[in-house]
Amino acid sequence: MGAVWVAQDEALGREVAVKEVILPPAVDEGDRDEIFARMVREAQAAGQLRHPSIVSVHDVVTEQGRPWIVMELLRGRSLQDLLKAGEVLSPEQVARLGVELLGALAAAHAQGVQHRDVKPANVFLCEDGRTVLTDFGIARVEGQVTITRSGALVGSPGYIPPERVRGDRGGPLSDVWSLGATLYAAVEGRPPFHAASPVAVLHKVLTEEAPPPQRAGAALGSVLLRMLAPDPAERPDTETAARLLRTVADGGQVRLPPPPPRPIVPPRPPATLPSGPRRRRGTGIVVASGLAGIALVAALAWYGTVRDRPPPVAAGRVTAQTSPTAASPVAPQVTPTVEQGKFTKPLDFCTLLTDAQVGKVLPGRFRKGPSSDGDGCQWAADGAGVVLAPIKPFLGEKEYWETSPEEAHERFVSNRNRSRPSDSIIWMWTDIGMRGTMRLSSTEARTVKGIGEEAFAVDLSANATGTRVRSEVQFRVSNLIVSAEYADLNPARAGRVRENALTLARAAAKKLAGM
Question: Against a cut of 0.85, is the pTM above it?
Fold first, then answer.
């Protein structure tokens, strides 16, 4: 939900990283306040920690009601970027990486801070050889009030331990499970639990044990499986896990301590049923299954509303092509999907509309270039603009062209369901000449026919005048979801905003269907 910028600390004469929050479209006031509060809490949680493998936070600044976090500038790439490039780490490298991250978690736990979102996207491989744990945005601090809403499930499905999926608060051993899943992905190229949808992933986490890794070797594999034990009591603590992984890194033999004995539960006496009609057998099973289904549906409903996705790459974001901790590239493993999508590689969104098509709706001359997320395209004129951009999938481990049509449909339905009326949207687009933010109101999502395989649209108006200034159409073609947005600041052209967005979306969908 943010972008990281390189900035200059003029007071101390050093380069720093500044994290900016970027709000999703049509976010309501409650979600906005929660996002801002999470960013402030990230600064508070990480700011009190001192460890070489924890990103240093220097300051948090509030500007125009939005928090900005000033922190240590890291150069390198994330573990997720490495995995997306088809690379994996050797068992020895993974073991050394795990020792460093366990040191970071031990330091955090000693201060009463649980990270709660350990995953490849939050593990940074620095050019100086360090491994750094980042993003304490959903950390839980002892004695601090929980910010997330009642029933909210926070995190990324493949890296949330089973006790937290069930609704427990979890503890330090929950971070150990998430780190185990992260190290598993680092050596295998994919997380231990993966499926076509977030609900299917959560179901596997709840009902299955992690499959033995194939590339880890016997020593590392046994440690990872113990870290991924469904019962927190059977997992090693950070000190024990670090000792075991240090032995793996040194090429030694690992001797796992036996798991603690399970408590003996005495058999319950048979219940005395009240007199009356005889109760049907199997009722308890039906009820239990129903509750599990409700839990998973609730988790998906939240995950599509306040999902935790990797931050979009802004123009000034730090990236690097190599990392000294990365292993030599290894051919990525191919995971079969239920259905192959139409789009299997990145698209040039600037080719989906011709200059003539855009020229019919935009006033005067316009400039064409990449959209702010780096994946789409924008056409900007004086006071008006057009954006075509892909909607990213639920799971942060995939790119938009790597999903299946089933996953794309689930994401589309979630987007449509969460597009509710709101009068607390903050908007700014400097490329079309805006010099300040504008507060907008959005309409209910309405279904649109004849654009792609399914589509919906939302209109947005300025609160101060009631004039329509933006309209967004989201549509799906096979495994690709596209957002087509038209904006115009001139009140005299407000009547054409909705129709222009529909016209451009229809043209882009037709182009995609013909590919």
Answer: no
Q: Which of 429, 445, 433, 420 is nearest to 364 (CA)?
A: 433
Among 191, 144, 194, 139, smallest CA distance to 170 is for 139
Catalytic machinery residues = 117
DSSP state letters, 96-114:
HHHHHHHHHHHHHHHTTEE
User: Which domains does the chain possess?
Assistant: 2-71 (3.30.200.20), 76-140+155-257+291-303 (1.10.510.10), 349-513 (3.40.1000.70)
Q: What is the pLDDT of residues 14-25, one digit of tens each?
A: 888 887 766 655
Cβ contacts of 156 within 8 Å, gap of 6 or more: 117, 119, 121, 308, 395, 396
How far lies 156's CA from each of 15, 139, 179, 193, 293, in Å?
Answer: 31, 14, 13, 11, 19
Asked whether the beta carbons of 370 and 377 are under 8 A apart, the reply is: yes
Give Cβ neighbours of residue 39 (< 8 Å, ≥ 6 apart).
Answer: 2, 19, 21, 60, 67, 69, 137
For 314, the token pair is 């802004």
Stretches where the chain sits below pLDDT 50 are 137-152, 264-338, 395-396
